[in-house]
Amino acid sequence: MIAAIPTHQVAQWILNTITGFLDSLGLKHDPRIEEIIYIIVIVAVAILIGWLIRLGILFAAKKIVGLRKSEFGKLLLQQHTLTKCSHIIPPLVFLALVPFAFESGSRTLHYITKIVGVYTVIMFGIGLSAIITFIWSNYDRKANKENHPLKGVANIIKGVVWAILIIIAASILIGKSPMALLAGLGAFAAALMLIFKDSILGFVAGIQMSSNDMLRVGDWIVVPSTIANGVVVDVSLSVVKVQNWDNTIVMVPPYTLVSTSFQNWRGMSESGVRQIDRSVIIDNTSIVEASEELLNAVGATYPEMNTYIANRRKALADGQGNVFNGGVAPVNGTIDTNLGLFRAYMCQYLLAHPKISNDNNIIVRLMNPDNYGTPLDIYCFTNTTEWLAYEAIRSQIFEHIAATAPKFGLRIFNSTFHGNIEIAQAEGPRQVGEAAPATPSAK
Fold first, then answer.
1. String of b and e for 332-363 (b: at least 16 CB within 10 Å)?
2. List of residues 6+ apart from 341 with CB closer than 8 A
3. Which letter, b or e, does each residue of 390-415 get, where b requires 16 or more Cβ atoms within 10 Å of its Cβ?
4. Is residue 181 part of a domain?
5. Would you list the DSSP string of 57-89?
């Protein structure tokens, strides 16, 4: 790149060409006119050289990527890293040629050099930021298998680079050493902390989340203090982008996640199982002692229950009573009541269900009774974490409970209010003064 920048010989050739051009037109050799024409020419030369070098670099890069077919090269072209780095070539060419158009100590040359110097610093910053972004993206693609939120670290590095370059640009404009400007920044520390408060807090929060593995891109999180309830799609220095279940995007500051609590569903996804913990309420008046007729009927309807009933009968005959086996997924129930028998049936049903994990706890239990009845709680885990499949499995289980509970003589609680309205409507309107019929009692 340096070899492509013109030397003083090229500059002298350009000056001689301009002089010859003015002579051919019969114009007087005015230094101002020569300077203006020279500046226009070297700007065009700088842009042309920069464009040619950019084309050459991109052509070579595309050929290399086409031959090797590497992800590294494809990422380099996709992010336009080489193009952004090549922006520094035109100002370097201009700085190499512009001094030959002016006399030594010219104030115009002094101002032009300062302006182009600042422009060179800006172009250098753009190229350096592109390199930092490329390095982070390549690392994130190859080494960051766990999707740690490292984008904030890359952003803070770019922020430090730009802060240094701004100081250098300011020193070029005012003609003072950058160290002198750095010494004077202490007076503005409070103002800088106020201006960059969100960036500083976001940087600290990003380090905490990364070191504690609190959050990764792709995690499903729920933040109770906000409306965020979805998948993390991006983590930057100042914001965490969450795509909610309805495809809306919620922006959450990183320090909000650190300063308050949030729920991360990654553990559930990585485990491969998802919990079901839901109850139906059994009408207490339908719970009765299990008779021989009920045991025989259940055994006839559900042959898989015969072994369990026989074992319990034998245990009772031997004076052992109910024996409760430990383990991850035991059959939990009794043959004392129809509800205990139904619990045993549901345990066997869940153990035989192809979508219920037998490696995790399967519990069919009774919760604290209340005015509505006794809750029968189903606690188990599906062997899939996919949302639609999970909802289908859970719905199927409770549909099965609703359909089979009456065969054990059990009633699932349901408010009788709606039924009373239907009975009243079926009887038709009453005459004025006619007594209302007695409301049927709940059975």
1. bbbbebbbbbbbbbbbbbbeebebbbeebebb
2. 290, 294, 295, 298, 305, 309, 333, 334, 335, 408
3. beebbeebeeebeebbeebbbbbbee
4. yes
5. HHHHHHHHHHHH--HHHHHHHHTTHHHHHGGGH
The answer to whether 54 and 84 have CB atoms below 8 angstroms apart is no
Residues 35 and 100 in one domain: yes
pTM, to two decimals: 0.54
**Which H helix or E strand runs over 138?**
helix 107-142
Report the alpha-carbon distance of residue 360 to residue 350 in Å, rounded. 12
Report the domain count for the chain. 3
CATH number at residue 243: 2.30.30
355 plus 254 within the same structural domain: no
Taken as a whole, the chain contains a residue count of: 443
Q: What is the tens place of the pLDDT at every residue in 374-433?
A: 999 999 999 998 989 999 999 999 999 999 999 999 999 887 644 444 444 444 444 433
Per-residue pLDDT reduced to its tens digit, 182-237: 666 665 666 666 666 777 777 777 777 776 778 888 889 999 888 999 999 988 77
Residue 160 in this model has a pLDDT that exceeds 70? yes
Please enumerate in sequence order all residues whose Cβ is within 8 A of that of 11, keeping only pairs 6 or more positions apart, or say none. Answer: 42, 96, 97, 100
DSSP string, 354-371: TTB-TTS--EEEE---BT
Position 414 in a domain = no
Domain end: 194, 211, 228, which one?
A: 211
Residue-number span of the structural domain to which 229 is assigned? 220-265
As beta bridge partners, residue 264 has 221
| Chain center to CA of 352 | 37
19 with 107, same domain: the answer is: yes
Phi, psi (degrees; rounded to nearest 5) at 67: -80, -45
For residue 210, the tally of other CB atoms under 10 A from its CB is 19
- The answer on 204 and 345 residing in a single domain is no
Token pair, residue 32, equals 């101002």
Q: Are 30 and 49 in contact (CB under 8 A)?
A: no
**Are the C-beta atoms of 137 and 130 separated by less than 8 Å?**
no
Residue 433 falls inside a structural domain: no
Let me know if residue 171 belongs to a domain.
yes
Which residues does residue 226 pair with via DSSP β-bridges, in sequence order?
none
C-beta separation of 380 from 276 below 8 A: yes
Q: What tokens appear for 274 in the block?
A: 């998802």
